[in-house]
Amino acid sequence: MLRVTKHIAQRDATKRVTYLCHKIVVSSNSNYSTLNHRFGGGSYHRQQQHGSNGQGSGGQHFRSDFLAPHGPKAWTIPPNRGYGMVVVRILRGALKLRYLLLGGAIGGGMTLNKKYEDWKDGLPDLKWLEEALPQGEKWSQFSKTLMEIGGAVKDVIEIAKDDIKSKTTVAALSLSQDESRKKYDNLQSQVETLQTEIMNVQIKYQKELEKMEKENRELRQQFLILKQNKKTSTKKIKKSLIDMYSEVLDELSGYDTSYSMADHLPRVVVVGDQSSGKTSVLESIAKARIFPRGSGEMMTRAPVKVTLAEGPYHVAQFRDSDREYDLTKESDLSELRREVEFRMRASVRGGKTVSNEVISMTVKGPGLQRMVLVDLPGIISTMTVDMASDTKDSIHQMTKHYMSNPNAIILCIQDGSVDAERSNVTDLVMQCDPLGRRTIFVLTKVDLAEELADPDRIRKILSGKLFPMKALGYYAVVTGRGRKDDSIDAIRQYEEDFFKNSKLFQRRGVIMPHQVTSRNLSLAVSDRFWKMVRETIEQQADAFKATRFNLETEWKNNFPRLRESGRDELFDKAKGEILDEVVTLSQISAKKWEEALNDSLWDKLSNYVFENIYLPAAQSDSFNTMVDIKLRQWAEQALPAKSVEAGWETLQKEFIALMEKAKKSPDHDNIFDNLKAAVVDESIRRHTWEDKAIDMLRVIQLNTLEDRFVHDKSEWDQAVKFLETSVKAKLAQTEETLNEMFGPGQFTRLTHWKSLTEDQNKRRHVKTELDKILRNDDKHIPTLSYDELTTVRKNLQRENIEVDTDYIRQTWFPVYRRHFLKQALHRASDCRKAYYLYSQQGAECDINCNDVVLFWRIQQVIRVTANALRQQVINREARRLDKEIKEVLDEFSEDEEKKSHLLTGKRVTLAEELIKVRQIQEKLEEFINSLNQEK
Q1: pLDDT averaged over the chain?
Q2: Which of 285, 286, 616, 706 has its C-alpha lying 20 to 30 A from 874's C-alpha?
Q3: Angle at the Cα of 748 (from 742 to 754), degrees rounded to 5?
């Protein structure tokens, strides 16, 4: 019964796998016949022809190939023959199982590939994305199908595993226990390998499915977003009048920071003594506690320009920032106060206490009056030890600057809780506005004044009879109860309650109701502000129009064929030209690079070759041995680093040459020269050659120097030419040294009226004696013996010339060098036609050509080094230099001071001023048009 059940399960699982694989292959339009062949040589076709129940010959053939036979007679065969048949059938089943799995995997892969290609082809047409991408149901069905394949195959493997175990047990009856265990373990490992392969394939395709489904969902979401954005029409946001006016003021501040030329547009300047409550008045008008607070400490260290505007939400925002602070949230208020304090302290540099840098802020909210207010540092009468020595004068000058604007509304804040005589601000206000035509007086802390001051005195202040200062209006406000945590609403409610119940204001006819509360004050200030704006804005626009006309005329007269380009535009143009030169650097041919590197390397290495290798080896009895030692030491230590140094100098030289060549072009603009030179210098200073290049060069150079035999006649001729050229160049340098040491010849002295110095005359006598030594010994060693030195001295003493041995040696060195170099030239000439003799006899050649071999080896090292450096330059260093140049340009572009220093001249300053004036005038005209429309 158990065997029948197993047989039925096995047959069902096989049919299930076959059907599912067939479904995948057909859906992907793959080669059905190939996959069917891998299932067992067409057995599936025969099964379909004879019926799907597995009773035909095809079905029997399929089962006999894939599974072991069953039935009571299955195991009555002889033991040896039966064991062989069992093993063969088990192996055949395992192999067919592998083919089945591979076929399923290939079919599934082809299906996935086809669907992925269809999906990819549809991607560019985002307009019809739903049609291009596969539907979610298809993907779900496909994933489900693969999962069913995995489950079915797993069932087949479990059945085959059980069957293999049973058959292996029966076969083991005729074998020894050790052999049966070995066979069983082998079959067990094959089954486990198949299981691992199946699981890996299943996991791989499951991951691919999940990845493609995720991308599908993301693309659909993007498509929906694009579709919604298409339907949404972009509306131009209309700026409010006060925002436009604030932008005009900001432009003017940047145009003329001294406020002494054209920045005369109206604004409300809040002035007062320190701790008089001026900041609290501004906060009450803005309906938010937006400024940092301190107990007696100076908190306002720089001018703060606050633009008030009406809006649906109560928010604040800095001019140079996109972040909005929600003023209804205490957390945002705290962050805003911290930011204001940070900006104030950051603006104070060089040990200063106050700064002229303006902090611009916009506050919008329901019911706010539209105006621009500037809060200034409070006026002080005494300085503390932590203040700069010029703090008091700086605050006075800053306050006068703002109040001297003929269109500035002065909001003069007076502390009502202290004696009026102690105030410093009223005298300043009287100096700037003696008639009081643009001054509004505000008495703060009236609640404290009620307890401390005489009521009649307060009434005199508010009626303008106590101070000689005149004003447009006098107002009394209460700025708080002395609690830091009170909200503006609580303060305003306290203010209104105070004025309703105060004894100071109960008598009618003394103080008018409109003279009290912050609300009435803000209405009065706003009304006066807009009246002055309407009166002055057109005058300022006309003034800038005239300024613009004058500047444009001056530009046409001085630079008729050029457009007005500011520093930013000029910098961008210079940046493009520099980057173009970097691109040109990469277009230099490999041949030119190698020629330049060869020359640079020899210039860098020639002195070392002569002084440390060639001349010392020539003094030795064993020239070749000494050369090998010196060359190896050189290649292991100094040569790689010197080669990199030569490569970097060549790269630098070529780049600078390209920059100089660009200056000679007809469209060159010399206004960029300073900027380009600064960028190149900074980039070169930063650039360093890669460290690993030295190690790579060391290996190449050591391997090259191992070759000691010249290979052919052409290389021999090149080495001879290289030797002669190098020796002639060194001989020319030596002749220059000798000319300086011994003076000009007789012909030059006669024709140019020159004479010998005493030292030159003495050295000529020494040279005469040294020439005698060289004539007597043509192969003299580089040093003089003691006897030779003594002989020279005695001979000179006969001529009444006293010299020491060091003097003789100094003269001997260039004399011997010239002698040695001339002999080297003779040897090179003799070796020119001696290659065939050298190739046959080698080092034993009758003609001494060791010099040629040495310079051939050096020439080969220079050649391979130049080739390696050329590859490094083209593949790595030029790109790294390009990257560093871009970094330097980006840094310079953000440094306005650097750009102002490097881009100078009348052309730049005139263009900058013209662009700025044109910008301001356009904003003024835009504001005037909007102001007229509002009328």
Answers
A1: 76
A2: 706
A3: 75
Taking alpha carbons only, the member of 311, 339, 343 closest to residue 240 is 311
Helix axes 623-636, 638-663, angle to 10 degrees: 70
Q: What is the pLDDT of residues 244-263, one digit of tens each?
A: 777 777 777 666 544 443 45
**Which residue from 431, 438, 435, 406 is spatially nearest to 543, judged by alpha carbons?**
406
Given a contact cutoff of 8 angstroms between Cβ atoms, the answer to whether 40 and 65 are in contact is yes
- DSSP alpha helices (H): ranges in 172-296? 177-231, 241-255, 278-286
- List CB contacts of 442: < 8 A, sequence separation 6 or more: 281, 411, 412, 413, 414, 474, 475, 476, 477, 521
Burial profile 205-239: b = 16 or more Cβ within 10 angstroms, e = fewer: beeebeebeeebeebeeebeeeeeeeeeeeeeeee
| CA dist., res. 213 & res. 146, Å (int) | 15
One DSSP character per residue, 91-159 reads HHHHHHHHHHHHHHHHHHHHHHHHHHHHHHHTSS-GGGHHHHSPPHHHHHHHHHHHHHHHHHHHHHHHH
CA distance linking residue 155 with residue 421, whole number of Å: 104
SS3 at position 317? strand
Q: Please, what sign has the CA dihedral across residues 591, 596, 599, 605?
A: negative
Element (H, E) at 310: strand 304-310
Collect contacts of 653-662 with beta carbons under 8 A, ≥24 apart. 653/596, 653/600, 654/585, 654/588, 654/593, 654/596, 655/581, 655/582, 655/585, 655/680, 655/684, 655/881, 656/680, 658/581, 658/584, 658/585, 659/581, 662/577, 662/581
The pLDDT of residue 794 is above 80: yes
Q: Are 649 and 674 in contact (CB under 8 A)?
A: no
Long-range contacts of 13-19 (CB under 8 A, 24+ apart): 13/152, 13/155, 13/156, 13/159, 14/62, 14/63, 14/66, 14/67, 14/156, 15/52, 15/54, 16/148, 16/152, 16/155, 17/100, 17/104, 17/149, 17/152, 17/153, 17/156, 18/44
Please write the tens of the pLDDT for every residue from 54-113: 444 343 333 334 333 444 333 344 444 454 555 556 655 555 544 554 555 555 555 555
Between 237-241, 447-451, 544-548, the lowest mean confidence (pLDDT) is in 237-241
List, in order, residues 6 or more apart from 811 with CB less than 8 Å away. Answer: 741, 763, 766, 767, 770
- Burial of 396 from C-beta contacts in 10 A (0-12 / 13-18 / 19+): middle
Which residues have CB under 8 Å from 401's CB, separation 6+?
258, 259, 260
What amino acid occupies position 758?
Answer: E
Q: Which long-range contacts (CB under 8 A, 24 or more apart) does 292-298 make?
A: 292/337, 292/338, 292/340, 292/341, 292/344, 293/337, 293/484, 298/274, 298/353, 298/377, 298/378, 298/380, 298/387
What pLDDT is stored for residue 232 in this prediction?
38
Q: How far apart are CA 765 and CA 298, in angstroms?
A: 87
Does residue 438 contact residue 532 with C-beta atoms inside 8 Å?
yes
- Residues 859-886 have pLDDT tens digits of 999 999 999 999 988 888 888 888 899 9
Q: Are strands 371-375 and 359-365 parallel, antiparallel or unpaired?
A: unpaired
In contact, 138 and 228? CB cutoff 8 Å: no
Highest mean pLDDT among 201-205, 426-430, 509-513: 426-430
For 736, the 3-state DSSP assignment is: helix
Q: In 463-566, where does DSSP find H-type helix?
A: 488-501, 518-558
The 3-state DSSP class for residue 355 equals coil
Kindly state the helix (H) or strand (E) to which residue 509 belongs, with its residue range: none
Q: Are 112 and 206 in contact (CB under 8 A)?
A: no
The answer on pLDDT for 126 being more than 50 is no
How far, in Å, CA of 931 to CA of 541, rounded? 13
* DSSP symbol at 923: H
Q: Which of 14, 167, 36 is nearest to 89 (CA)?
A: 167
